[in-house]
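Quick question: what would this complex look like in 3D?
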Amino acid sequence: MTTPLRVGIAGLGTVGGGTLKILSEHTAMLKARTGREIVITALSARTKNKTRSTDISGLRWFDNPVAIASDAQVDVVVELIGGAEGVARELVETALKNGKSVVTANKALIAHHGIALAAMAEQSGALLAFEAAVAGGIPIIKALRDGLAANNFKRVVGILNGTCNYILTSMWESKRSFDDVLKEAQEKGYAEAEPSFDVDGIDTAHKLAILTSLAFGCAPSIGDVYIEGIRRVTLRDMEFAAELGYSIKLLGITSQTPTGVEQRVHPCMVRMDSPLGTVPGVFNAILAEGDSVGTVLFEGRGAGAGPTASSVVADIMDIARGVAYKPFTLPVSQLNPLPFSTMEHLKSSYYLRLRVIDKPGVLSEVTGIFKQEQISLRSFLQHSHKPGEPVNVVVTTHDTQESSMLRAVDAIAKLATVSETPYMIRIETL
Amino acid sequence: MTTPLRVGIAGLGTVGGGTLKILSEHTAMLKARTGREIVITALSARTKNKTRSTDISGLRWFDNPVAIASDAQVDVVVELIGGAEGVARELVETALKNGKSVVTANKALIAHHGIALAAMAEQSGALLAFEAAVAGGIPIIKALRDGLAANNFKRVVGILNGTCNYILTSMWESKRSFDDVLKEAQEKGYAEAEPSFDVDGIDTAHKLAILTSLAFGCAPSIGDVYIEGIRRVTLRDMEFAAELGYSIKLLGITSQTPTGVEQRVHPCMVRMDSPLGTVPGVFNAILAEGDSVGTVLFEGRGAGAGPTASSVVADIMDIARGVAYKPFTLPVSQLNPLPFSTMEHLKSSYYLRLRVIDKPGVLSEVTGIFKQEQISLRSFLQHSHKPGEPVNVVVTTHDTQESSMLRAVDAIAKLATVSETPYMIRIETL
């Protein structure tokens, strides 16, 4: 007879509540599947007395979450507080130092301090598990680490932030502006009052840094992620994109290139009929490209109580079963010190929207600049308009080096006939 | 210093060759990821002297594959021979009895004898691993067993046979008949000379029985799978489907219903814009629906050297890492003796194509039969045609019990004005 696995949960927000629910309602199922009873022996959250869907009255309560990390009746600490620093970090560090395994959904913590934490876990023989930190219910961490472990990965591409995907999908479907849809998303609770973390791409970058680490066996390096959010995407760009057969998605992309590992988060045009082109609303999706497996797509809910708790509890079950693995696939001492590439080395094709005053010679000036940078154009769109009024002109390029493209955009922006800052969106082939 | 994991491979066809390639070319990567060297210490195949992409001259050769199972220099037996009986079964049974772990891509063996084999593995402390048996490179076995383990599954739906999906996709894209496309697929090597195993749905049924077992914790029961292949699907049906917003796919579906676990393999109409509606060519895709996670989609290559070997080697890596799990999620003695439902209990909506001789009163006869069975019609299609000539009439129904539908189809088939056996396709909502 094995002893029960004793779990302490810190943080009872959306994900904490979902975790509590699964552990309470599926006790017998989890025991059958792991061979071990999983019991909650400690809880902590900001507010104790609050109506919750699961009754917690019989459970041990801690006003100080960090105390759970030293509690003798806890084997596994589930950290669902959030934030790269402060209480969450202190809790996780204390737990690992005390030899208690940690399950967390905290992408910021793992992206910033994951390697230091993994080293502590190695030291004390504890497990550090963070399936829920990336893409909610999609088991992408386990897939990269276990299911696809025989592959040398070439590229991993993901729609990793449900808020951004919801905003972009809604803009297109309801033909509204970014500001309009963001406001609605905030009212519906899909976006935070301070939306910067999501819409400026930071959340996606955290998740991407973690995926990079798993795919390429290096330390997560959030500082080496190029980050550009979705605030500048307009409905007009979406209409042009559709005309060209594309949709616009915020992607996180990590790939092996001749100049190093390239990590980037930015709006992308992807073919509408490609696997990521039609991922709807709050869904997340990830394409992993391996040398043996080819391309594998994973799609599902990237947030919410049920999906994220599904991943949290799967990690707890791993611990109950006694599964051992390296959190970042390799022992910390053996992680690859891979060089990271920078954006000027990127080779991509581009979409560029200009607003020009329609005078003779304008297009000749623009195309002259492209010629000077040896950028070859793939398509050119301009719709009929009233003579003399500003008009949107769209060009797309063949594969070009980003540094050349940026010089061209810079020169074009300075033309007297160009009336707004041009907007450039990279086109990603999937 | 850990000792190397010694692998014996039986069967060097497509998948065996792919496995050999990964193990030979990624030796250092696999060692870094598992912490243990993986070495090939035994090989067996039908022909020894044959040009192969990997040099096998230095490796120990066995004319009798079963001898590998008793070889003192082998820790893991990789069975890539195929077939539910004969040498493959003998090899796997001997290996497990000898305490050697087994990795196999053999769906027929696992669907028919998986539980007996799992019991042997439990007895001897060996591992039985079969990620490659379902959906090639997609790590769906691990996802159901580990990544989504916190879920009570409601339904798992898959496109599990690349040959069928290739044939159906090609029929539609090139507007050709089943026979034409099958012939081409055979010439290209996508379909076997004896295609029955694929096109009659048997291969899909094997894979579905395995997925059922993992999702619901019961023994695989191939005898309880309703099986109907794709031979009767016509281009005409695809055209009507498209008109209604559907594509036609061969699906394997397993779900919990009030009358038991329902397992069925048959052509389905699925909405074109649903996740399985546009899965192209030889790809496989699986939708898993869990109570917490909601719906998760997995898509990738379901066959071929690289993808299938990716899964074979991932299983070998699990063994190298010392991962322990129950092959069917639960210990054999604790598997659920779930009742299986039968097709007459199915509730579905239906597509029915009739060829009728256009005489006054025909449609009234047909609709009268539906009324008698209390089947409510959702749509009705009939295209203009020359008067007096036979015409295709298509009806779709609202949700109906299969037994009623079959009685109606039977009665309709007997009408003097119906000139061909009506063709019924179930419509699946995803």
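Answer marked as accepted. The domain at 140-301 of chain B is CATH 3.30.360.10 (Dihydrodipicolinate Reductase; domain 2).
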